[in-house]
Amino acid sequence: MFQKAIFFHLILLLWTTSVMAQDFSSLVEKSWNNNEQLKAQHFQLQQAEAALKEARSMYGPTISLGGQYTLAAGGRGIDFPVGDLLNPVYSTLNQLTSSNAFPAVENATISFLPNNFLDARLRIQQPVYYPELAINRQFQSSKIDLKALEIKAYKRLLSKEVMTAYLQWQMAQQAVVIYEKAEALLKEANRTTTSLFENGKALPSAVNRIQSEQASNKAQLIDAKNQEENAWQLLAFLLHERGISRDQVTVGLPELPDMITNNGSREELQQLDVGIEMQHLAVKKEEQFYLPRVGVQIDAGSQDFDFQWKPYALLGVNVEWNIYDFKRHTHKKDQALAAVEAQKQQKSYVQNQLELQSAVAKNNLLAAIDQANTFQPRIQSSQKTYDEVMKKYRTGVANYLELIDAQTQLTIADLSYILARYNAWIKWAELQYVTASYPIN
């Protein structure tokens, strides 16, 4: 009766989980919140947002304060005969006034290099019409969209990896349960065989064979526990939460998944759409080659020698107008147009590829569900066969080889069903990823 209790306990465990709806959101959110790669991409998104703000700020003025103080000696100069011009006049005035009120003046040499000269200014520059500023702003905005889609794509991949890791861990746990169940069955078989041997109804070889099966099952149980530990380590790594225990990681799963009918839009296709838009911006930039660029500059300050103050103001309008560049901008435009067409073809190829992946994933899920549904009758039949053989074995009607074969078939049926069940769930997670069904915020 002990093996029946284990069997019904396993059925009760599976039925209990089947009435709960699967919800991986808690595990997925943990992985999103703790993943360093995702955090790095969020910082890159902030970087792109700052670049957009920088592009917008280019429409505003820039104000700078500058100055230059100059000391000079030597260099080129010009002779100015001020003495030759004024001294005859001063001499006549001195004679008329009978005084020396007008002393003689020496000729001067004026240097081209300013000495002890200070130029201080406040400069304001304002772009008036720069077409490339609008292009740059749109380009930086597209980079934000591209980075946001990259984050969503990584989140989607991470969600699939977390689901798959959890399902593989659960599958390994169930395998441990099955081998422990087999260990209990073999223990009961060994007790029964030993009793038969002591009563002279079984040979020593029967006891040895049962004990050999126990050792073999023990080795398989050790391997199953190792696989369970490795699967748990992978899941814990993806969740990346310090101190998390197995009891804190639970997801209610129905017996088998349902077919996914709602399809979303893959981020890879959206990224290609944004890439096409960015290439169109490159085309637009070259089409604006002949448009003028206009800016205004205002200088207000002082220029004088010996640190004197002589204020001035200067207004300037800067105009730049492209006329001819030997068709360089035309060739750049052709390159951008070719890049647009290449991106469109790439998008078409990726779209067809994703549709193929979706069709294959749906077929795989349907086949996995159908395959898993075939195991329940096999498990029931194997359990019934084992119970009957065990009864006959206790009465000496069946031999130990029949008992071992029945126990082996039951263990294989249990393991095969667990593998088929979780394989169906793994195919479900793959289909969720391929069809972009899981909601990504």
Topology:
Layout: H1 2-18, H2 25-34, H3 36-57, E1 62-70, E2 77-80, H4 82-97, E3 108-111, E4 117-129, H5 131-198, H6 204-239, H7 267-287, E5 293-305, E6 311-320, H8 328-373, H9 375-394, H10 400-434
Antiparallel strand pairs: 1-4, 2-3, 4-5, 5-6
Produce a short descriptive summary.
The chain is of the alpha+beta class. It has helices at 2-18, 25-34, 36-57, 82-97, 131-198, 204-239, 267-287, 328-373, 375-394, 400-434; strands at residues 62-70, 77-80, 108-111, 117-129, 293-305, 311-320.
User: Percent of residues in helical segments?
Assistant: 55-70%
Shape: elongated
CATH fold topology of the largest domain: Outer membrane efflux proteins (OEP)
Which residue ranges are poorly predicted, with pLDDT under 50 across at least 5 consecutive positions?
1-21
When the domains are counted, the total is 2
Strand content: 5-15%
Report the mean per-residue pLDDT as an integer. Answer: 90
CATH class of the largest domain: Mainly Alpha
What does this structure look like?
With 441 residues, the chain is α+β, with helices and mostly antiparallel strands. It has 2 domains: 2-34 and 130-289 and 325-434, Up-down Bundle (Outer membrane efflux proteins (OEP)), CATH 1.20.1600; 77-113, no CATH class. 66% of the residues lie in helices and 12% in strands. It is built from 10 helices and 6 strands, in the order αααββαββαααββααα. It has helices at 2-18, 25-34, 36-57, 82-97, 131-198, 204-239, 267-287, 328-373, 375-394, 400-434, and strands at residues 62-70, 77-80, 108-111, 117-129, 293-305, 311-320. The protein has a 4-stranded antiparallel β-sheet, with no helix packed on it. The protein has a two-stranded antiparallel ribbon with strand order 2-3. A hairpin with a 5-residue loop joins strand 5 (293-305) and strand 6. Helix 3 runs antiparallel to helix 5 (131-198) and helix 5 (131-198) runs antiparallel to helix 6 (204-239). The longest helix has 68 residues, at 131-198. It is elongated. The two termini are 52 Å apart. Mean pLDDT is 90; it is low at 1-21.
